[in-house]
Amino acid sequence: MPSPAGLHANPSMNRRRFLLTSVGSGAALVAVPAFAGWLPTADAKAATGAAAFVDDYKTNVVANQTPETNAVIRVLGGFAKVWKTGGAWNTGTPLLPEVLRANMRYCARITAARTDAQAKESFIIDRQHQSYSVIAGLGPLADLYKSGAKAVTSITSAPDGTPAGKISDALPADAPAGSAIGAGSYDSELGNVAKLVDTVRGPFASGNPAKFAFQYPRPWRMNEDSEVVDTGEKDEFGFPVYESEVVVAPQLLRQRSENPAEDGGFPSGHTNALHLAALAYAYAVPERFQELVTRAFELSHTRIVAGMHSTVDVLGGRVMATALAAAALTDPANAELKAAARAQALAYFAEHTGTTADTLHAYAHSASAGTDPYADRDANARTVKPKLTYVLTRSGRDQPLTVPKGAEVLLETRQPYLDAAQRREVLRTTALPAGYVLLDGFEQWGRLDLFTAADGYGAFESDVTVSLDAAAGGFGAADTWRNDIRGEGGLTKRGTGTLTLTGHNRYHGGTVVEDGVLVAGSANALGQGDVRVVGGTLRADKVVRVRGAYVQEGDTALDLLLRKNHGPALEVSGRVVLGRGSVLSLRVDAERPPVAGTTIAVIEAQRLRGQFDRVELNSDTLRAVPVYTTDGLSVRLLKR
């Protein structure tokens, strides 16, 4: 029998095209010749002229199982370059056997290295309502959410061995009145948030139509080698015994489906549900956006650890969830609900934490790694990055991404100070490169990297103007861009709010501060061009470098940190021009404070022209006397 993994299968075999269709009103499914003749290898080409996914997502129902009729199958069309569906669950043909071989080897290696604790965790995630599982990504807000939403679960632990029968999440007998499993009760203080999660995971968000269409088997039904060998034996649970190297967690052996034709692996339904829930929560609680995205990636990985899904299954689940979440959040029918959910979450958490829109973010990140597993942003990035592509390798040339219609809504509450076009640029400039098979399907939803996009632009390919309003509160008033920004464009900062740049930036178009505060949070935050401060304040918490010229004029401030035994706080490769009205505001470093009687370098430049109107120092014991030279500025510190 040809292998589902097909590692040595003859591509000329299995030329008949098949389609799983519903029979009557029941749930039974049978394989029949495809009357319309959809060939999976057609992928996105079959959808030429098709409607945008966000306008067509409601076609994702079991009755539609071709890329021409189903928007989800269309966006998953990249998988059709890897796998050609056969007439039955075990007769498909690999089109890229090297990808599927790597896929199976990865799964076998992961399940072989699985610990007992990981097996138990994978059981909990498998059986627990996915919307509940994601709540832990809220960190210090998680318990408050559960209480406010009346969200409960009956799956809180895993057995040591294999349970006697099927187990499902249900309302616990001791649950408080009005509780609900999953995201919680609509009749609660966070009812709108719970409803938003359920709406994003609504009736058009199932992975089953795609499973039936692609018929790619789960890893435990396949062998890494050339054939799936049915030994003729059955295990104690009645399943045929195959020579497979992927071992299912013992706690899940009785939880498996008994019908392989109705139990395809691609795409992973759990992964789809987990990412949908995470993106819905992230819309309502953007203060934990990256942490919720990380949580979804981490939980999805347990599907591989459990032996229940393969890497390509998990990738497919994430791709479809990204598109489906955007579609539901873009749908005008949900506009009132999503706004109400965001407002409700902000008001509830502010009230119960004693914070405001401006301070909630700090509270949401106040826990240590000991109590919040997502407290370390860099660790989160290390968790997410390899899971964006898993075993896939790149081939071919990179191609610019046209961001799918509506995708910008996914950043709507996380970057409310940007307009839709700007959020699309953020998504485009932080996206994965082209060339990853499966991720390059129709509209290329798989290339979006939401974790990185939450940290702002990846490039200024043209000039960018951003305006933050201090009165807007939350991210509308202050945000941090952590990416390393490249490109030929420049940045203009407007508005009364605060923007912080922390990356090793290489954009060439220069930086202009017109209003509010721009914070240089790293030595190379200001890129490669000139810097002009014509309004507001430029602040640096570390030594900062300007690769071009530095010009400050008008009613403006340069705010620098003054340290003992340290080089100049501002290093300028070109000239410095100081105009009338400009102020130098110096802060004494609390950890390494300079002492009276010393002279501290502040600005070093190729040439300096002009002077500050005044020099301020935030010290009750010291005063700063400026010392100007042709190539810089120092201050002599004297006792008051």
Automatic annotation (TrEMBL):
Protein name as catalogued: Phosphatase PAP2 family protein
Q: Where is the secretion signal located?
A: 1-36
Among SMART domains, the record links this protein to: acidPPc (SM00014)
Q: Which UniProt keywords apply?
A: Signal
Where, by residue number, does the polypeptide cross the bilayer?
none
SUPFAM superfamilies in the record: Acid phosphatase/Vanadium-dependent haloperoxidase, Pectin lyase-like
Recorded hits in Pfam families, A to Z, give: PAP2 (PF01569), PATR (PF12951)
- Which NCBIfam families does UniProt cross-reference here? autotrns_rpt (TIGR02601)
Give all residue intervals belonging to the Phosphatidic acid phosphatase type 2/haloperoxidase domain.
Answer: 192-329
Instruction: Please indicate which superkingdom the organism of origin belongs to.
Output: Bacteria
Gene3D superfamilies per record: Phosphatidic acid phosphatase type 2/haloperoxidase
**Classification via InterPro entries:** Autotrns_rpt, PAP2/HPO, PAP2/HPO_sf, Pectin_lyase_fold/virulence, TAT_signal
Q: Does the keyword Nucleotide-binding apply?
A: no
